[in-house]
Amino acid sequence: MARVLHNLLLFLIRLALKIRVLGYWSLIYGYCALCTTAALLKLCWSIVLRPTATFQWAIRETPPACLSDTSLGTHCYVRIKESGLRFHYVAAGERGKPLMLFLHGFPEFWFSWRYQLREFKSEFRVVAVDMRGYGESDLPLSAESYRVDNLVTDIKDIVEYLGYNRCCLVGHDWGGTIAWLFAIHYPEMVTKLIVLNSPHPSVFTDYALRHPSQLLKSSHFFFFQLPRFPELMLSINDFKALKALFTSRNTGIGRKGRWLTAEDLEAYLYALSQPGALTGALNYYRNVFSSLPLSQNHVRSPVLLLWGEQDAFLEQEMAEACRLYIRNHFRLNIISGASHWLQQDQPDIVNTLIWTFLKEGEGRKSHRN
Q1: Which DSSP symbol is given to 137?
Q2: What is the pTM assigned to this prediction?
Q3: What is the pLDDT of residue 257?
Q4: Is 206 a catalytic residue?
Q5: Which listed residue (115, 285, 311, 345) is catalytic?
Q6: Does 363 have pLDDT greater than 50?
Q7: Which of 45, 99, 332, 338 could bond to 308 as cystine, CB 3.0-4.6 Å?
Q8: Amino acid 36: pLDDT
Q9: From edge to edge, which strands make up the β-sheet containing 99-103?
Q10: What pLDDT was estimated at residue 366?
């Protein structure tokens, strides 16, 4: 009798797990279909209003002058023997000083760290990398090449090929996600972890599944699972959606801080209008669901989490929940009025908070700004 009950219990556990997995993927594909329908309606409406302009967009042939600004650093390349990929990065500060490595988010590139490159080069060897598929770094064609484990390995290889075995790691948005994961898997290589508007991956997963409002804000995760169509929607009307992302009142840079200049915007359009650039950026999303849930969660490095209060894509409640997974000093600063792009629209405040974290003792209790 006991054996029968034991087998029945195992059967019920396996059945519950299968139902949970089925529900998880049903939610993903169902929401993907809903987002696709909404995008199709938007496309049709655009064709009605601007039948000739809708399918016109231009590849920017010449980079704007701001991308060659020598005050930001030197443009360099490193080819990783193991993966065969060549990575572009901009570096400043003396060689031999501690490495501060910057990882950008979507849909950005090294240029998003321009204010920090100038600020921290006095005491660090600062390096802002174009991540796999972005900017002047190599762009693998296969979506499978953008699996999370490959992205994390890229950072390890870059640090080592730069001649270091550890770094102060700084990441924003998708770069923040990779920074969290790198600190989890290679704690000995991270002296301090600084993350901007990117929750711990486990926090994001748990919170989004329990809060429909966050699921709605993350609808692009589902839409971007489609092949080719998201690239089209981001390109129509000469990249109107990307321009709005960076400049609109709801989502743009500069709600209460520095506005994105016309030249800055052209820098982004130059990078993202190149053949295959949007596909490389979107492929990060096309592997995200298969990498969850995480098998490891805990971060053992000291952590600074900076969060823009007016983030249009991520709810603030997730920031505090990150504390659960940190086994070291944790400092959280909520920046009033800052957007999702806080290192660009509030660079002075962000830089000051980073300096404070870098210089303070690790035993101090975390607090909110």
Answers
A1: S
A2: 0.89
A3: 63
A4: no
A5: 285
A6: no
A7: 338
A8: 75
A9: 74-79, 86-92, 125-129, 99-103, 167-172, 190-196, 303-308, 330-335
A10: 43
